[in-house]
Write a structure and sequence with these properties.
Strands 1-2 form a two-stranded antiparallel ribbon. The chain folds into three domains: 5-99, Winged helix-like DNA-binding domain superfamily/Winged helix DNA-binding domain (Arc Repressor Mutant, subunit A, Orthogonal Bundle); 108-245, no CATH class; 256-348, Arc Repressor Mutant, subunit A. By secondary structure, the chain is mainly α. The longest helix has 26 residues, at 108-133. The protein has helices spanning 5-17, 23-31, 36-44, 59-71, 87-99, 108-133, 146-158, 163-178, 183-192, 203-210, 214-231, 240-245, 256-266, 271-278, 282-295, 307-320, 325-331, 338-348, and strands spanning 75-77, 83-85. It is 62% helix and 2% strand.
């Protein structure tokens, strides 16, 4: 059977998890579930770039794709109901990715939500300015999302230049950026735009134009958007790209709940007291501390894991070549808690 590009994405994720996580873990990762476990999985298995790339993915679609791969002997179902990529599957994955690699600039963890906001605002702004330039006052806006509509209205009211000048400047910024992209990627981006003259195409329509897989086109498009969001970091702060999302940029990558726990930890409050103050389970606060350790290079969890203990656990991890907590715990004769082992994984995975 001819596998679509989504099948490759699924194979790639299963290969990265190496039989140590369930299909649910992949579903939550691609869907963008902002739980400590999913965030940690992304980091530890080098899959953060895939986070939240398919926010509308249904569990049924994922299950069906997995079943198709299983029937083709590209996957093997393990006794614990986890999946493992077979040698046949690895060969096909490597062969197909050599021809169409995963787009290199995708960064779902950093730019998933931010990229979607950026695109909604940018595309609506392009539509509004295009209709202004061509003096068309009657048209249906791209979206009914009131937040996006209000943002564009507010932006146009506050910007200190005329709409004509703004249209020219935005055109120039987009053109200069697209000149840095491949012809194919630039075409996919522009074909998604709606102007006074044209209606933006769907990914399926663009895929037919390019004789390409819709999922691959979809990922190429978001690769361009993530590149744009990243590009504005290096631009002057008076650029339009920067202005579009300056109110949405976040300085830390922690979930809001973990950020609150971090604030208490910095005050010297104990884990048990934080749990009591926040009326949360101790295991939940432990989840937060693991997440903080994973993402905050300056945070040293020495109150929970000494340097000597970290080194001993790390040696066990290297010896066993596994991310399975139970195996590490048993190997070390239950000397350490699951929390301490997770902290060791988090420290080792900081640069993952």
């Amino acid at each position: 059977m001819k596998h679509g590009y989504f099948h490759l994405v699924l194979l790639y994720c299963i290969k990265q998890f190496n039989g140590e996580r369930s299909l649910s873990a992949i579903y939550h990762l691609l869907n963008g579930k902002k739980s400590s476990q999913t965030i940690q999985d992304g980091k530890l298995f080098n899959l953060s770039h895939m986070f939240s790339l398919f926010p509308r993915l249904s569990r049924q679609y994922l299950n069906e794709a997995c079943e198709e791969l299983l029937q083709e002997d590209l996957l093997e179902l393990l006794p614990n109901q986890h999946y493992f990529v077979t040698d046949k599957g690895k060969f096909m994955l490597n062969e197909r990715l050599a021809k169409r690699p995963l787009p290199a600039k995708l960064n779902g963890w950093e730019y998933g939500d931010l990229g979607r906001i950026f695109w909604r605002r940018l595309s609506l702004l392009v539509q509004v300015l295009s209709n202004f330039v061509y003096e068309r006052k009657q048209y249906l806006p791209l979206t009914k999302n009131q937040e996006d509509l209000l943002w564009v209205k507010s932006f146009l009211n506050q910007i200190p230049i005329s709409k004509s000048d703004l249209a020219e400047e935005l055109y120039k910024e987009i053109k200069d950026f697209l000149l840095l992209q491949t012809t194919n990627r630039a075409a996919i981006f522009t074909q998604r735009l709606t102007s006074s003259q044209t209606i933006g195409l769907t990914f399926e329509q663009i895929a037919r134009k390019h004789n390409e897989d819709p999922t691959f086109v979809y990922l190429l498009f978001w690769d361009v958007i993530h590149s744009m969001v990243d590009f504005q970091k290096t631009e002057k702060q008076d650029s339009i790209f920067y202005a579009i999302i300056k109110d949405k940029r976040q300085n830390n990558s922690l979930t809001s709940s973990s950020a609150k726990t971090r604030a208490y930890l910095l005050q010297g409050i104990t884990l048990q007291d934080i749990a009591a103050i926040r009326k949360l389970k101790i295991s939940t606060i432990e989840d937060h501390i693991v997440e903080i350790t994973l993402h905050d290079q300056s945070f040293i969890p020495s109150a929970f894991l000494s340097t000597e203990d970290f080194e001993e656990i790390s040696e066990a991890i290297k010896s066993l070549h596994t991310h399975q907590l139970k195996k590490i715990k048993e190997y070390l004769n239950h000397k350490y808690s699951y929390f301490q082992i997770r902290l060791a994984f988090a420290i080792n995975g900081r640069n993952g």
